[in-house]
């Protein structure tokens, strides 16, 4: 299905790189969530990087998705880091105070060059 | 001027696949006013929140109809109404508190109303238990 193309997951050096794409809403969150959780349980990484640079839209269902994966990672002793949210996505993350809980690295600066 | 310049009505079955359709449709309609990308993104997010709440909480995944109405006026005021005839909210004030959620799966952040409040200029929530919820959101475009 089309949704399967939303998320790309790669494992390198105990780091799970999750690249999310497109719109993250309540409808798409379910399959993305299942895919990430499966990879976390299977690979037992030390770090989970959520790359949000290609996410076009995200609402509070996306916030729930991110927070839920943070907890899932913690459960197995892994650290979750948010990578490169666009200005728009950063706005909603900050509104919810996510940066006080989860480390956010990089911004959309180099994509603008 | 009392009468509105333009309006749109959209009735959708409470299927999660329609969440994207709902916000795109409202955005396309409002795009007639040449809003900024930021304003359009704000509106899309707020609509997504209200429609998702109707589907998830109002109808609890059972079948129902989500009613969407959009109006805009000559002074670039956009008013969006989103209604459901679901279970309703017992205490609206409590429900609107950031981080408040009745969800038990641990997958909801309780930030939906906060998003609507932040991204729109005005938010009005009315509800009667077992009758449904009516959300009225206003945004003044630049
Ligand atoms: N249309 C509705 N019908 C019935 N209850 C509602 C409706 N909309 C919201 N609620 C109630 O208000 C609470 C708060 O809603 P809000 O959107 O802020 O958070 P959430 O939906 O629980 O989580 P999130 O939006 O972050 O995924 C919900 O948990 C639910 O109990
Ligand atoms: Mg919600």
The CATH level-2 architecture of chain A is identified as: 2-Layer Sandwich
Helix content of chain B: 25-40%
Annotated CATH homologous superfamily of chain A: STAS domain
Largest sheet of chain B: 5 strands, antiparallel
> In the CATH scheme, what's the topology name of chain B?
Heat Shock Protein 90
Oligomer: heterodimer
- For this structure, the CATH topology of chain A is Transcription Regulator spoIIAA
- Name the CATH superfamily classification of chain B: Histidine kinase-like ATPase, C-terminal domain
**What percentage of amino acids of chain A are in beta strands?**
25-35%
Give the C-level CATH assignment of chain B: Alpha Beta
Helix content, binned percent of chain A: 40-55%
- Please give the alpha-carbon distance between the first and last residues of chain A: 33 Å
Query: Count the strands of chain B?
Result: 5
The pair of chains with the biggest contact is: A-B, 20 and 23 residues
What does this structure look like?
The complex is a heterodimer of chains A (113) and B (142). Chain A is an alpha/beta fold and 113 residues long. Chain A has helices at residues 26-43, 60-75, 87-95, 109-112; strands spanning 7-12, 15-24, 47-58, 79-83, 103-105. In chain A, strand 4, helix 3 and strand 5 form a beta-alpha-beta unit. In chain A, helix 1 (26-43) runs parallel beside helix 2 (60-75). By secondary structure, chain B is of the alpha+beta class. Chain B has a single domain (6-140), classed as Histidine kinase-like ATPase, C-terminal domain (Heat Shock Protein 90, 2-Layer Sandwich). In chain B, 33% of the residues lie in helices and 28% in strands. Chain B has four helices and five strands, in the order E-H-H-E-E-H-H-E-E. In chain B, strands 1-2-3-5-4 form a five-stranded antiparallel β-sheet, with helices on one face. The model of chain B has no long low-confidence stretch (mean pLDDT 96). The chains are: A alpha/beta (113), B alpha+beta (142). Chains A and B meet through helix 1, helix 2 and helix 3 of A and helix 1, helix 2 and helix 4 of B. Adenosine-5'-triphosphate (ATP) sits between chains B (49, 53-54, 57-58, 84, 86-89, 95, 100-103, 108-113, 133) and A (60-61, 63-64). Adenosine-5'-triphosphate sits between chains B (49, 53-54, 57-58, 84, 86-89, 95, 100-103, 108-113, 133) and A (60-61, 63-64).
């Amino acid at each position: 299905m089309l949704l399967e193309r939303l998320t790309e997951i790669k494992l390198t050096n105990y780091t799970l790189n999750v690249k999310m794409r497109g719109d993250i809403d309540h409808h798409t969150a379910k399959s993305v969530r299942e895919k990430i959780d499966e990879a976390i349980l299977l690979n037992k990484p030390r770090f989970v990087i959520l790359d949000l640079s290609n996410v076009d839209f995200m609402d509070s269902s996306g916030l729930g998705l991110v927070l839920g994966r943070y907890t899932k990672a913690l459960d197995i002793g892994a650290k979750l880091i948010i990578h490169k949210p666009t200005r728009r996505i950063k706005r909603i993350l900050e509104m919810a105070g996510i940066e006080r809980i989860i480390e956010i690295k990089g911004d959309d600066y180099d994509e603008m060059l | 001027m009392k009468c509105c310049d333009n309006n749109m009505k959209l009735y959708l079955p409470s299927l999660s696949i329609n969440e994207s359709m709902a916000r795109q449709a409202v955005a396309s309609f409002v795009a007639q006013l040449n809003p900024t990308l930021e304003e359009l993104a704000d509106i899309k997010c707020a609509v997504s929140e209200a429609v998702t709440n109707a589907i998830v909480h109002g109808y609890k995944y059972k079948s129902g109809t989500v009613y969407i109405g959009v109006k805009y006026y000559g002074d670039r005021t956009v008013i969006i109404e989103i209604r459901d005839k679901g279970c309703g909210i017992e205490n609206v004030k409590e429900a609107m508190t950031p981080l408040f959620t009745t969800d038990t799966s641990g997958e909801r952040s309780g930030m939906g109303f906060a998003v609507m409040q932040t991204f729109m200029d005005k938010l009005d929530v009315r509800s009667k238990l077992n009758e449904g919820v009516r959300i009225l959101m206003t945004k003044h475009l630049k």
